[in-house]
């Protein structure tokens, strides 16, 4: 049972869930590659590398470009030096701002659990003026573990006042990492289908899915009512 006696916390993934950040991540990867005279990757390639955090992103970039694996540390450092300023091409998905304020107005404590490092996470939330909506923000470098480990999501829920031993709430995300993380945490998972997943919807473990944030407030209410 996932019953909440007060409004349940609702925690969101970030890249591919609240924001379409792949164009900025893609552009920043290519700036770093250009510094090494490496030909650029396509947006589709880089989008497919997002979800597991910056270290995994660059392991995948290195495998795709044939760069030496020893280059990893330098590439990550060069990327991180630019990541917080990479916001010009990033957009909130349609109706995100409205859905967040409806949920906040209804009393749901809101949080973020992302594999994106905390610096760029806070920078992009500030850029869109929505940082203050979130009572807990866990980034990919906030803890030793990353999603799909349950620890970061559990930390987000407990940061919002949930019981640490039996966290209650709902997780909203776009990727295989998120689906597995929600299962590991034993909370319902709402899948946003327009993000960066590579697996067909029917093959992903999820409680319900949606493709428009206009549907989310009702979906959260229904999920909380039946869980
Ligand atoms: O930075 C990433 O690779 C993924 O970020 P996400 O957890 O917000 O999808
Ligand atoms: Mg994501």
Automatic annotation (TrEMBL):
The active site is at 13 (nucleophile). It comes from the Bacteria. The keyword Protease does not apply. One of its GO terms (cellular component) is cytosol. Mg(2+) binds at residues 13, 15, 174. Its EC number is 3.1.3.18. InterPro entries: HAD-like_hydrolase_sf (IPR050155), HAD-like_sf (IPR036412), HAD-SF_hydro_IA (IPR006439), HAD_2 (IPR041492), HAD_sf (IPR023214), PGP-like_dom2 (IPR023198), PGPase_prok (IPR037512). One of its GO terms (biological process) is glycolate biosynthetic process. Pathway: Organic acid metabolism; glycolate biosynthesis; glycolate from 2-phosphoglycolate: step 1/1. Keywords: Carbohydrate metabolism, Hydrolase, Magnesium, Metal-binding. GO terms for molecular function: metal ion binding; phosphoglycolate phosphatase activity. It is an enzyme of class 3 (hydrolase). Its cofactor is Mg(2+). It catalyses: 2-phosphoglycolate + H2O = glycolate + phosphate. Specifically catalyzes the dephosphorylation of 2-phosphoglycolate. Is involved in the dissimilation of the intracellular 2-phosphoglycolate formed during the DNA repair of 3'-phosphoglycolate ends, a major class of DNA lesions induced by oxidative stress. Belongs to the HAD-like hydrolase superfamily. CbbY/CbbZ/Gph/YieH family. HAMAP family: GPH_hydrolase_bact. This is Phosphoglycolate phosphatase.
């Amino acid at each position: 049972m996932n019953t909440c006696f007060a409004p349940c916390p609702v925690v969101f993934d970030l890249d591919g869930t609240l924001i379409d950040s792949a164009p900025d991540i893609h552009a920043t990867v290519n700036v770093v590659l250009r510094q090494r005279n490496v030909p650029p990757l396509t947006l589709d390639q880089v989008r497919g590398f997002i979800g597991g955090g910056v270290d995994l992103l660059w392991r995948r970039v290195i495998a795709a470009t044939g760069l030496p694996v020893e280059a990893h540390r330098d590439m990550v450092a060069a990327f991180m030096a630019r990541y917080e300023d990479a916001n010009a091409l990033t957009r909130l998905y349609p109706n995100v701002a409205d859905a967040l304020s409806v949920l906040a107005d209804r009393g749901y404590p809101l949080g973020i659990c992302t594999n994106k490092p905390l610096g760029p996470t806070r920078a992009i939330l500030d850029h869109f003026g929505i940082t203050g909506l979130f009572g807990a923000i866990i980034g990919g470098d906030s803890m030793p573990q990353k999603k799909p480990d349950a620890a970061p999501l559990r930390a987000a829920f407990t940061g919002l006042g949930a019981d640490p031993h039996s966290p209650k709430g709902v997780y909203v995300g776009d990727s295989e990492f998120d689906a597995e993380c929600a299962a590991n945490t034993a909370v319902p998972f709402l899948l946003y289908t327009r993000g960066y997943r590579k697996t067909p919807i029917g093959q992903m473990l999820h409680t319900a899915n949606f493709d428009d944030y206009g549907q989310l407030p009702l979906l959260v209410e229904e999920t909380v009512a039946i869980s």
